[in-house]
């Protein structure tokens, strides 16, 4: 696995085959967000979009806590430890922090989450911006901002009711209570549970399956899942879906996929 030059002290970015692996790396502070971490995540998501050799990304973390969200100790003192590079980037991209946290401008390819331990506040907020989620049996989730007199600005009050039943989303954001891994699975907040220590390996298995798919189809289906909301009238949603589907069916990859099926061989997709 090769570490990329966009890594930062608090966010390690590596490439393994067609997969980008993004690792939060501030275990001494329970992986609470820092400017260096946000910078690394922002760069990773933009690289995922720009590099045609990449098919998906895995977001994981070092240490026994996935992410505690915003660094409340630094926030209370007004000391965020911003680096010059991060401040310069903020001048060019004012919403860089929201892009890093997958609220704005999500990359156009699937995002797989691998969670061990606690994922609280922003740690669960970023979950709602991912597509496929693997959790360890010891994982704990929760959007706890309300308990601190704060608002979950990374989008949980908007996204969670669209992803799980409304009353369960309301319980998460209004009570700020912790949600066990088993509850998260039962509620549809995560896809699968694995023993502690095995989430990254499981996420890589999913990434390997994604790597075998057609790149154009993958991006179009990802957009459909994210952009065509369930409150859109069905006939209108179908028209939006057709707009995404038509270029895929006209592509060389579509012809190659059907030809490979007929010839009983593995498809050689080129992204064209």
TrEMBL record:
- Species, as recorded: Candidatus Marimicrobium litorale
State a single Pfam family of this protein: ECH_1
| Stated family | Belongs to the enoyl-CoA hydratase/isomerase family.
- Record's protein name: Crotonase/enoyl-CoA hydratase family protein
PANTHER family from the UniProt entry:
(7AS)-7A-METHYL-1,5-DIOXO-2,3,5,6,7,7A-HEXAHYDRO-1H-INDENE-CARBOXYL-COA HYDROLASE, ENOYL-COA HYDRATASE-RELATED
Quick check: keyword Mitochondrion in the entry? no
> Is the keyword Lipid metabolism in the record?
yes
What Gene3D superfamilies does this protein's entry cite?
Answer: 2-enoyl-CoA Hydratase, Chain A, domain 1 (3.90.226.10), Lyase 2-enoyl-coa Hydratase, Chain A, domain 2 (1.10.12.10)
What UniProt keywords are attached to this protein's entry? Lipid metabolism, Lyase
């Amino acid at each position: 696995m090769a570490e990329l030059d966009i890594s930062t002290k608090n966010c390690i970015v590596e490439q393994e085959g067609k997969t980008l692996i993004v690792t939060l790396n501030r275990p001494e502070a329970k992986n609470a967000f820092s400017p260096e971490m946000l910078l690394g995540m922002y760069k990773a998501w933009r690289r995922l979009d720009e590099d045609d050799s990449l098919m998906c990304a895995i977001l994981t973390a070092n240490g026994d806590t996935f992410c505690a969200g915003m660094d409340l100790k630094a926030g209370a003192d007004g000391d965020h430890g911003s680096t010059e590079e991060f401040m310069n980037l903020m001048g060019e991209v004012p919403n860089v922090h929201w892009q890093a946290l997958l609220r704005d401008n999500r990359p156009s390819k699937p995002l797989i989450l691998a969670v061990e331990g606690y994922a609280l506040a922003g740690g669960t907020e970023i979950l709602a911006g991912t597509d496929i989620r693997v959790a360890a049996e010891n994982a704990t989730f929760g959007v706890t901002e309300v308990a601190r007199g704060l608002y979950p600005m990374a989008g949980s009050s908007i996204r969670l009711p669209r992803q799980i039943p409304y009353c369960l989303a309301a319980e998460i954001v209004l009570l700020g209570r912790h949600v066990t891994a088993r509850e998260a699975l039962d509620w549809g907040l995560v896809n699968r549970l694995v023993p502690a220590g095995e989430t990254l390996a499981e996420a890589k298995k999913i990434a390997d399956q994604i790597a075998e798919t057609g790149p154009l189809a993958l991006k179009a289906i990802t957009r459909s899942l994210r952009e065509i909301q369930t409150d859109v009238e069905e006939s209108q949603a179908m028209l939006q879906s057709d707009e995404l589907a038509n270029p895929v069916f006209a592509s060389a990859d579509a012809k190659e996929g059907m030809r490979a099926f007929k010839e009983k061989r593995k498809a050689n997709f080129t992204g064209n």
